[in-house]
Amino acid sequence: MDITKIKNKFKELYGAEGAVYTSPGRINLIGEHTDYNGGFVLPGAIDKAIYCVIKPNGTAKVRAYAPDENPEKVSLNNEFGLEEADKPKDRWAQYIFGVCREMTKKCAKIPGFDIVISGEVPLGAGMSSSAALESCVGFALNDTFNLGFDRFQLALIGQATEHNYVGVKCGIMDQFASCFGKEGSLIRLDCRSLEYEYFPFDPKGYRLVLINTCVAHMLGGEYNERRESCERVVAAIAVKHPKVRFLRDANLDMLKEVSDKVSAVDYIRAEFVIEEIQRLLDTCELLKEGDYEAAGRKMYETHTGLSLKYTVSCPELDFLNEKAKEYGVAGSRVMGGGFGGCTINLVKEDKYDQFIQQTTEAYEKTFNIKPLVYDVVIKDGARKL
Length: 385
Ligand code: GLA
What we know:
Blueprint: H1 3-14, E1 19-28, E2 40-41, E3 43-56, E4 61-66, E5 76-81, H2 91-105, E6 113-119, H3 129-144, H4 151-166, H5 173-180, E7 185-190, E8 196-200, E9 206-212, H6 221-240, H7 252-257, H8 264-288, H9 292-309, H10 315-326, E10 331-334, E11 342-348, H11 349-367, E12 372-375, E13 383-384
Parallel strand pairs: 4-6
Antiparallel strand pairs: 1-3, 1-13, 2-7, 3-6, 4-5, 7-8, 9-11, 9-12, 10-11
Helix pairs in contact: 2-3, 2-4, 3-4, 3-5, 4-5, 6-8, 8-9, 10-11
The structure holds alpha-D-galactopyranose (GLA).
The site of alpha-D-galactopyranose has 12 residues, from helix 5.
C-alpha cells in the first residue's frame, strides 16, 4: 500500500495532514460458522489491510472519501451527519456511520471528522474486508478522540455495526482477528467466553496459500438463515437441556433427541456445526504435534461439511478443492462465510508450484475467470502507523 498516496490525497482534499491507521483482513485455518454458535475459531490477521487517514474537522459532519481507480478498492465520496436519521445510502459509508453510532450508544462523544480510506483486502473474497474497515475506523476514532475503548470493545463495536447497520448477523471472529492479530501467530478464540490464546504457526516445509475464485458473494440473507437454523435447533434442545445456550453446549446425542422436532435442513446444519467445533479442537492437537498432513485432512473434512451439510460452497470452490486433492495438497477448504471467495490450502513446498500452475490454468479454462493467488503472511492487528 502506498501510504504517501492516501496521505497526499487527504491533504489535497482537506488541506491538512491527518493521522494514519490500519487494520488487516484475516484468514481462518479451521472452525467455520462456529463463532456465532459459541464455538472455537483459529484465525490470523494477514498482510492485506485497510488504511485510513483521519483528522477532526471542527464540524458535526463526517466527510469520507476513498479513491476508486482500482475496482478492488473502496469507492466512496460522502458527507453525512452522525444522528441516527443521517444514515448514508452508500454501503461503505454505512460501515463508518455504524461504527460511530455504536460508539455513541456506548456514550462516546464523536465530533465531525474527515477521513480518506484505502484498502488492499479484496472485497467479497472471504478475507473480511468489512471487519478490517470497521476495526480500522474504530481504532482510529478511539485514538483520535481518546474514547477509551479497549480492543475487545472495538471488536464488539465492529460486530454490532454489521448487525445493526449492514444487516449481517455475523459472529465475532473477523473483528476479533482484525483487532487482536499478532505476527506469526494464529488466534485460538473461544467465542463463548472470548478467551483466546496465540497459537504460533510456522508449518515447516508447508505453505499456506489462498486461491480466490473471484466469484464474490456479499454475505447477507443466506448467511443469516444459517444462523437462524442453529438458533432453532438450540431452542429445541434447550427444552430438555436448559443449560444449552449455543450449539457449542450441545452434542450429537442431544441433537438426535430433537430429530423429529426440527426440520431436516436445520438438523444437518447443526450436525455440521457440532462436528466442526470438535474438528477444530482435534486439529489444534494435530498442529501441536506437527502433524500437518493429518491437520490437512481435517480441512478437507470441513470443506465436505461446508459443501454438503452447511451448503455454503459453490461449483467454483468445489472445483478448487478437487484440484487440491488431485495435486496432493495436504489440506484445502472454502474459507470464511462461503458462497464464493477463497479456498485456503496447506501445501507442501515441493507440491506448491505444480498445484498453483495447473489449478489456476484449469480453473480459467473451466470457468473463464482468472483466479487470484495470495501467499498468506500472518501479521499484526489494528494499529497506528
Ligand atoms: C463470516 C462472518 C464470521 C464467521 C464466518 C464463518 O466471515 O463474518 O463471523 O461466521 O463468516 O465462519
